[in-house]
Amino acid sequence: MSQNSIAKPALLSNKPKPLSQGKEALNVFCRNPSAVLGFILLSSIILISIFGPLIMGVDPFEIIGPPMEPPGSEFALLGTDYLGRDILTGLIYGGRATLLVGIVAAILSVVIGIFIGALAGYYGGTIDEILMRITEFFQVLPSLLFAMVLVTLFSPTIWIISVAIGIVSWTNTARLTRGEFIRLKRLDYVLAERVIGARSSRIIWKVILPNAIAPLIVSATLAIGTAILFEAGLSFLGLGDPNMMSWGLMIGNSRPYILIAWWAVTLPGIAIFLTVLAVSLIGDGLNDAFNPRLRERV
Amino acid sequence: MILQTHLAQEPLLNVKNLTVAFKGRQGAAPVLNDISFVVYAGETLCLVGESGCGKSMTALAIMRLIPEPGEITQGSIELSGQNLAQFSINDVRKIRGNKISMIFQEPMTALNPVYTVGDQISEPLRLHQGLTKSEARTRTIEILKSVEIPVPEQRIDEFPHQLSGGMRQRVMIAMAMACNPDVLIADEPTTALDVTVQAQIFDLLREQQQRGTAIILITHDMGAVSEMSDRVVVMYGGRVVEEGLTTEILDKPAHPYTQGLIACLPELDPNPTFDRPDLPEIPGVVPSVWERGESCPFADRCDRVMAKCREAFPPSFQTGLTQKVACWLFEGQV
């Protein structure tokens, strides 16, 4: 290390411009190798899912050759399943359903969670009591069973599945939001906002929420991973959308043949694993980036 | 001079017999007990007293921002003849930031870290005066200039963490003064600042006052009182114990508590020696709200306490031109 590299930043830069919270967090995120890896991984999966089907233009349910061909056979690069459908095509098309459900369900769960948590945390008292009892009700319900009931009651389309997953998974976000609101509502700048005559709705959504958003972004990211696993679970149990190829559906359908055609189950499993891993890495990276106290640990 | 103007005019803010109680399991705890004082237009009134005596609670009561489960159980707060204590929450919101505004002790936490300075100052303008975004921005630059922030065109887009403590307090004042309120409540605005910056903030507050805003300055610093205020209200244990013109109070404090407060002021000794005398102090602490009852709250710490003091809180006795003291020592003397 050269000597002047130490003196430089302090003396020569005429005015170091402090970064806003977001920019600084972005900087920390970009210096975290596992977070960047997760980001690259997830972006590739998303790009493949969006553009793959557009380029290929085939039907993932179409039979292209003999059933249970192993990977590397003359018919299919990654083999075929028990009906002779191409695994690679299935994986590429299945990514769409899986990611769509993951993202829609995560958005829904975060929106419900923030709404309930914000009202409970801000108003406190009776409103808090009622909303938290409702939250606890949803927390103690066996969520997979409840989602299964919802999907069975309505038709198992991809939208219903997303809604069902969203409805059973908002409770953690609600508790997190409530905690942040209880902490933040006592701060002087919230009081200052009331002093100038702002209404409660403004204080909740425009004053407190932006300050609570960092942990919520982390929680939302992780919720995508959870929702993807949930969708896989539902599809595995045969409650997925039968008209839309998804990774969970592929695993569920090929389950009886796992000993004969392991690839038909394993490959979609690896796809789910990689996607959830990527989402978790991003979530952890965001957590470190937004939480200055955790940064020191690295 | 001050007196003449006062006699001639109606008070701008008239707090009458204000009682604020916190309801708990053990019953209602009065944190403010029968508080009365007035504020005239364009004057500076100091609320003095030590921590826990109800100064900040009085300010919050005027803003109608008493935290749960506290409430105004008695009395009125009249601003230009309208009783704020009976306003609906919607009407109170129209007063807040518009007619009465407030600044806080800690400028580090009183600004929202995620919005720029400009966003925060222009908010009351857009809220109360219905200005558009660009109008509000022009006005905000003017306001920043008036609180002596250098290069306001640039500062307007900066975030609070980019400003120093004194600068943030200026922004707070700018935010509070944006709509030219009639009354500005300053709750220990300089406690968290350096002494040099304190003087600047006082200058700034004085300027606002000269433009016609009445200031209620909450402080426990008698130095600030002598520097800033026209009149003083001394509070103790949730009650007003003495009030009067600043000159009267500083010249001949009547209540034993006020005398104690003034005696506690350290003096700058030009020749410090090693055997410095101990600073005088008032022994004991402010009694908790549960211990107050009907007696004089200062009775346990007072060196001239009488049997009567423990029986009832005294009425106000006029001891000077405008000086009034709530102390049994002055019964029958005047």
Which secondary structure elements does this structure contain, and how are they paired or packed?
The complex is a heterodimer of chains A (298) and B (334).
Chain A: H1 4-11, H2 21-30, H3 33-56, H4 87-123, H5 125-140, H6 143-153, H7 158-168, H8 171-184, H9 188-195, H10 200-236, H11 247-254, H12 263-290, H13 292-295
Chain B: H1 2-8, E1 13-24, E2 27-39, E3 44-48, H2 55-62, E4 70-79, E5 82-83, H3 89-95, E6 100-103, H4 117-128, H5 133-146, H6 152-155, H7 165-177, E7 183-187, H8 195-210, E8 214-219, H9 222-228, E9 231-236, E10 239-245, H10 246-251, H11 256-263, E11 317-318, E12 324-325
Parallel strand pairs in B: 3-8, 3-9, 6-7, 7-8
Antiparallel strand pairs in B: 1-2, 1-4, 4-5, 9-10, 10-12, 11-12
Helix pairs in contact in B: 4-5, 4-7, 5-7, 7-8
Structure description:
The complex is a heterodimer of chains A (298) and B (334). Helix content of chain A is 72%, strand content 0%. Chain A has one domain (21-295): MetI-like fold. Chain A has 13 helices and no strands. With 298 residues, chain A is mainly α. Chain B is an alpha/beta fold. Chain B folds into 2 domains: 2-99 and 182-265 and 280-287, Rossmann fold (3-Layer(aba) Sandwich), CATH 3.40.50.300; 110-180, no CATH class. An 8-stranded mixed beta sheet of chain B has the order 6-7-8-3-9-10-12-11, sandwiched between helices. Chain B has a 4-stranded antiparallel beta sheet with strand order 2-1-4-5, covered by helices on one side. In chain B, helix 5 packs across helix 7. The longest helix of chain B has 16 residues, at 195-210. The mean pLDDT of chain B is 87. Classes of the chains: A mainly alpha (298), B alpha/beta (334). The A-B interface holds A 18, 20-21, 124-125, 187-189, 191-199, 207, 210-211 and B 63, 65, 68, 93-98, 101-102, 104, 106, 109-115, 123-124, 127-128, 159, 161-162, 172, 175-176, 178.
